[in-house]
Amino acid sequence: MKHIKIEKTLITEDKVKFQGDKEKLLDYKDLLEIAMDVLPQGGFTPKDIRERNRLQDAFDKAKDKTIIDIEDADYEALVKIVNASRWTLRDKDLHTFLQIFAKE
User: Fold this and answer.
1) Which of 18, 49, 85, 94 is the most exposed place for a label (fewest CB within 10 A)?
2) For the chain, how many structural domains are there in total?
């Protein structure tokens, strides 16, 4: 079991989402959900959909909104998703977030 600590960032939603809210500050859970929604080249495979839905279930079940518990295999899938993600900004808070999942 892996534990992801959810930190707040100073990144506003409009910086990473088309027509995002200029006032809404994102946290790590928000950034993870954005990464999971990024369309992989060629589209989502059934496996991609299963993995991402299982991850979303873990996010939604998190009782303490500051920590998300994820099974090891799901965490490895999440690491791959985050490392394959593409972003519309280069920001220090985003860099710190990405370093948690860095496999390079």
Assistant:
1) 18
2) 1
